Amino acid sequence: MGYEIKGQVGLVTGANRGIGKAILEGLLQAGAAKVYAAVRDPSSVSGLIGEYGDKVVPLEFDLTKPELIENAAKTASDVSLLVNNAGVLKTASALSENALESLDFEMQANVYGLIRVAQAFAPVLKANGGGALVQLNSVASLKTFPDFTTYCASKAAAYAVTQALKDQLKEQGTQVVSVHPGPIATDMGHDAGFDEIAEPPELVADGIVSALQSGEFHVFPDSLAKEMGSAYQSFAKNVIEPAMTEA
């Protein structure tokens, strides 16, 4: 069962640049009535407001600050489509001196932040007919790359939470989508050294729109992601996506 984006009110975290900006624009192009741009610095979306007018609404937001998440849920009480795109990355292996510090930093945003967002916005989505929640995970949630061990651990945890939300929020009619990009041309991708293999962020936006419309749970938007998704498909379809009871 697909989700109709046209006329919906969206919210995209980290919407001022990179993948988040592409998603915001993709939702508007798909017919969203308006999209809240949830960012640390609301002035950073002035360019988007200049281009799209009152269809873009700036909203102060930070995944590591529960009070801002709660305020956002109160302010954006008309949201029916939430895309949690924001996240952080540190370059740290398991043997790095800063491994625990990096892991704590990434868990705070990438995992605890997701849980805070889900808890704050699940009632909002329910009140607005169920809607949809889209979580930006990563191919790093499926495979650990040693130089980014702590980031991979945080994304694996976020993917686990996303799977649980899929089953729990289904009861209130909320569609959940888990997005697993590979190297994407963003500031984060540049800092991680992915420039030579990075692909456009619009691929992620297009993948999300397609998954919402088709009712798919997993999105593997770019070349590397599609390759990994193809190998993962059988397990995903037979183990992850079906509702299963605990042993």
TrEMBL record:
Entry EC no(s): 1.1.1.100
Entries under InterPro entries matching the protein: NAD(P)-bd_dom_sf (IPR036291), SDR_fam (IPR002347)
Enzyme kind, highest EC tier: oxidoreductase
GO MF: 3-oxoacyl-[acyl-carrier-protein] reductase (NADPH) activity
Name the record gives this protein: 3-oxoacyl-[acyl-carrier-protein] reductase FabG
Gene from which the chain derives: fabG_8
TM ranges: none
Homology family: Belongs to the short-chain dehydrogenases/reductases (SDR) family.
Keyword Oxidoreductase attached: yes
Entry keyword set: Oxidoreductase
Keyword Oxidoreductase on entry: yes
